[in-house]
Design goal:
The radius of gyration is 20 Å and the shape is elongated. It has nine helices and 17 strands. By secondary structure, it is of the alpha+beta class.
């Protein structure tokens, strides 16, 4: 739960809100975030093309900022969280991105963008974990294999499901090249040919339908690791469906465990989706949990509880569509059959 060990805290003495005006199809402008920040005595700073986000955050702390907020997507949150960790100042997440998974697991209402600003003036603070991949910090997860390859596609952000449907048969068909990802797994050394690996900052809840795909805790000091070597688009579609109701263990070639560190080896640069950002990184890939690394503030009025165990994050429509990926049938959810 996001409120575990949380404590009330004094209002920010010199708060700064960095705003990415392009995130979330212009949420900052729609919610008038600069003016809303000023109402709370917080200085707004709009990102301009070519700005270095980390440099701006470092400069703000040097000039006296004691609390830094980021209004943007998960990738931007990770960059500002890195600076907040390094400079030991508090971080505030304002869900002005597209999906805002980090905000969700912090227990924020992703539809209440303006309300998140109240963390500057009437908030509670706690420490949560971050995670690192080589020298890069992430707040949510890193994906390797098929998902990372899809993220590399320019069409991904505009149509996630359509991109999956177009790319999966080619990527996982009979003629698809085997992955050269290699890592040590529990009870099995050198687990080869994984088609999908997801490493998360704290394990995801995958055993119950409620809250599937969210994290019940952000302070366990553990990485969540999920890997499969399944082949074929239909098999992966089935995996996704069973995974959402916690039955993925029925399928062969699936592993799930947690660890404080994890290493992936490969013979060539690896496509990585890091908090949704597409990267190509040289192996080995070393993942490490950073326990209690970040001071994070949320509004006192926020629920402060992750949806894990109490809500559904994947719609039936999307799940049903994924089942039909390999069959090529028209996508029609069960409620409309």
């Amino acid at each position: 739960m996001a409120r575990r060990h949380a404590r009330p805290t004094a209002p920010a003495q010199k708060g700064l809100l960095i705003i990415n005006p392009n995130s979330g199809s212009g949420k900052a402008e729609r919610f008038n975030l600069p003016e809303e920040a000023r109402k709370r005595g917080v200085e707004p700073l709009l990102l301009e093309p070519g700005d270095d986000l980390c440099e701006l955050a470092h400069r703000a702390v040097t000039q006296g900022a004691d609390v830094i907020g980021m209004a943007g997507g998960d990738g931007s949150q990770a960059m500002v969280a890195t600076v907040a960790m390094q400079r030991n100042v508090a971080h505030i997440c304002v869900p002005a991105g597209t999906r805002n998974h980090f905000a969700l697991d912090l227990g924020l209402d992703r539809d209440d963008v303006v309300g998140a600003l109240d963390a500057f003036t009437d908030g509670v603070e706690r420490r949560i974990d971050l995670a690192s991949l080589n020298d890069r910090v992430f707040v949510n997860n890193a994906s390797l294999g098929i998902y990372a390859s899809v993220v590399q596609s320019d069409a991904y952000r505009d149509g996630k499901l359509r991109t999956w449907k177009r790319m999966l048969p080619e990527m996982l068909g009979r003629d698809a090249a085997a992955s050269d990802l290699l890592f040590d797994a529990p009870h099995a050394r050198d687990w080869p040919n994984a088609s999908l690996v997801i490493v998360s900052n704290n394990p995801y809840q995958l055993r119950r339908f409620g809250g599937v795909g969210t994290r019940p805790r952000l302070d366990s000091g553990r990485l969540g690791i999920f890997a499969t070597r399944m082949r074929g688009a239909g098999a992966v579609a089935k995996l996704v469906t069973l995974g959402t109701i916690g039955q993925h263990r029925r399928l062969g070639g699936v592993l799930q465990w947690s660890s404080s560190e994890f290493e992936v080896r490969a013979t060539a640069p690896v496509a990585v989706g890091l908090d949704g950002e597409a990267l190509m990184l040289a192996p080995p890939l070393r993942f490490v949990s950073l326990p209690g690394a970040l001071r994070v503030r949320v509004p006192r009025h926020a629920a402060g509880v992750s949806p894990a165990g109490s809500a559904v994050t994947l719609t039936r429509r999307n799940l049903w569509a994924l089942v039909h990926i390999s069959a090529g049938r028209p996508v029609q959810p069960p409620s409309q059959r």
